[in-house]
């Protein structure tokens, strides 16, 4: 981003702050303050790419958040949405994929500062050690987390979540067996391998086209308490709390602050993902309904 554009974004945010703070105070008084859930991929100083941010910038972003927001876990995100009890601006931190370097700085930082985080991992890559398909396609295969690294997070502020078996685009899955393998069976294997409950699921790529209804139903059947998208939207109290909307942890500090600072225009910028769930949390029943 050019310095001029960055300056323009900062200036607009500062000038509009009093108005936005007033709007936010009104929403907060009614328990309707929007909740932001951030997603990151990789925090490292080596091999930078579009889904990596440097350690010092990550720390700067976390410090900026801690000074201004309640940093809450995913269950509290859902509680505030369901009970329309969001009276203070709040943020939850998530990561996708499972990059080994996150164990060096980002995760120890979050744990040390007791910041709740949901860490979504593609199980098969952690078992085989194979790099993620998007890294291979980009010509930069990067090391992935091992199962032992994930097990070591038990009992910390970092909760493991599930991100399919092979980091597939669920929008390309066709048969019921595909969904079963990538979501239901993979999650069951990962729960057994880690001896941990996996409560949340994040769709790889996370845009509406990557989130088919059969995938949402498979996630529900697999016992997940919620699923995450990644197309940039607030979570609003009173909305469906099974679908958690996420915002990118942008490497540009201006855009990052802009996203997290309340902006009434963003209350209406959200593609809807329409779906329905079967009455029972039961794979066989879901299969009948999916057809
Ligand atoms: Zn991913």
UniProtKB/TrEMBL annotation:
Coiled coil: none annotated. InterPro entries: Glyco_hydro/deAcase_b/a-brl, NODB_dom, Polysacch_Deacetylase. The keyword Signal applies. One of its GO terms (cellular component) is extracellular region. One of its GO terms (biological process) is carbohydrate metabolic process. The keyword Signal applies. It is found in: Secreted. Residues 89-291 form the NodB homology domain. Transmembrane segments: none annotated. Keywords: Signal. One of its GO terms (molecular function) is hydrolase activity, acting on carbon-nitrogen (but not peptide) bonds. This is Polysaccharide deacetylase.
């Amino acid at each position: 981003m050019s310095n001029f554009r960055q300056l323009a974004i900062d200036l607009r945010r500062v000038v509009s702050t009093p108005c936005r703070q007033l709007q936010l105070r009104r929403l907060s008084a009614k328990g309707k303050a929007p909740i932001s859930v951030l997603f990151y991929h990789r925090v490292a100083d080596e091999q930078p790419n579009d889904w990596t941010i440097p350690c010092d910038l990550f720390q700067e972003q976390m410090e900026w958040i801690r000074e201004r927001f309640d940093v809450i876990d995913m269950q509290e995100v859902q509680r505030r949405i369901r009970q329309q009890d969001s009276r203070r601006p709040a943020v939850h931190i998530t990561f996708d994929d499972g990059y080994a370097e996150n164990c060096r700085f980002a995760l120890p930082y979050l744990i040390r500062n007791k910041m709740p985080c949901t860490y979504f991992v593609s199980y098969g890559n952690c078992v085989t050690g194979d790099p993620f398909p998007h890294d291979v396609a980009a010509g930069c295969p990067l090391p992935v987390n091992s199962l032992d690294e994930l097990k070591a997070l038990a009992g910390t502020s970092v909760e493991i979540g599930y991100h399919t078996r092979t980091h597939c685009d669920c929008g390309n899955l066709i048969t019921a067996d595909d969904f079963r393998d990538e979501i239901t069976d993979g999650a069951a294997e990962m729960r057994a391998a880690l001896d941990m409950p996996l409560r949340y699921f994040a769709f790889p790529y996370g845009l509406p086209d990557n989130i088919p209804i059969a995938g949402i139903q498979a996630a529900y059947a697999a016992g997940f308490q919620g699923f995450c998208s990644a197309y940039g939207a607030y979570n609003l109290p009173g909305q469906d709390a099974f679908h958690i909307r996420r915002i990118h942890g942008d490497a540009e500090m201006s855009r990052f602050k802009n996203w997290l600072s309340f902006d009434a225009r963003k209350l209406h910028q959200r593609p809807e993902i329409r779906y329905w769930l079967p009455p029972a949390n039961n794979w066989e029943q879901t299969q009948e309904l999916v057809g």
